[in-house]
Design a protein that fits this description.
Keywords: Cell membrane, Membrane, Transmembrane, Transmembrane helix. It comes from Paraherbaspirillum soli. This is Chromate transporter. It is a multi-pass membrane protein. By secondary structure, this protein is mainly α. It has a domain of about 100 residues. It is about 75% helix and about 0% strand. The chain contains seven helices and no strands. Helix 1 packs across helix 4 and helix 5 packs antiparallel against helix 6. The termini are far apart.
């Protein structure tokens, strides 16, 4: 099982341009849908815990690894997700500094932005659908996600403010 975790987290780390949160749909597909190693409820609960805890978002990988294979699963998953791609990032940045003024370098940097946004939107969609499957009423989680995305994109409102608004509305029982 450790080998399977290592290989998969290494492979998805290569497309995690928006960080670990950007590849949550692929983690979900792998851990919940394909191998049934984690339940939908556990996947979303661990994600919520990782988001609430201080530290980088990539800690979710260790939490999923721990859930699947204990401490060794956490260590292997984190090393596979962070180790090789950290080295790759250092090499790319070093190469990029030497070629920062070239047209192809600017094009690649501009092309990565929509890719990252798409991955993050897919994550929001996947988490909303998962929340709906956990017993929430129909498409309400997806609708709330769409409203939050719309507000975030149309106004200069911090995501933290949207989270705070969601917390207050949730605590009041309105959502």
């Amino acid at each position: 099982m450790l080998y399977v975790l290592a290989v998969h987290f290494f492979l998805i780390s290569l497309i995690a341009f928006g960080g670990a949160s950007a590849v949550l749909p692929e983690m979900h597909r792998f851990l919940v849908e394909n191998l049934h190693l984690i339940s939908d409820r556990d996947f979303i609960a661990l994600n919520a815990l990782a988001q609430a805890a201080p530290g980088p978002n990539v800690q979710i990988v260790a939490m999923y690894g721990f859930q699947v294979a204990g401490l060794s699963g956490a260590v292997v998953s984190m090393l596979a997700m962070c180790g090789p791609t950290s080295m790759l990032a250092i090499l790319v940045e070093s190469f990029g500094k030497r070629h920062s003024g070239t047209a192809w370098h600017k094009l690649i940097r501009r092309a990565l932005a929509p890719l990252t946004v798409g991955l993050v939107l897919a994550t929001g969609y996947m988490l909303s659908i998962g929340a709906a499957r956990m017993g929430d009423s129909g498409t309400r989680p997806l609708a709330l996600t769409a409203v939050a995305v719309g507000v975030a994109m149309s106004r200069r409102l911090s995501p933290i403010a949207l989270i705070a608004i969601g917390c207050v509305l949730g605590a009041a029982g309105l959502i």
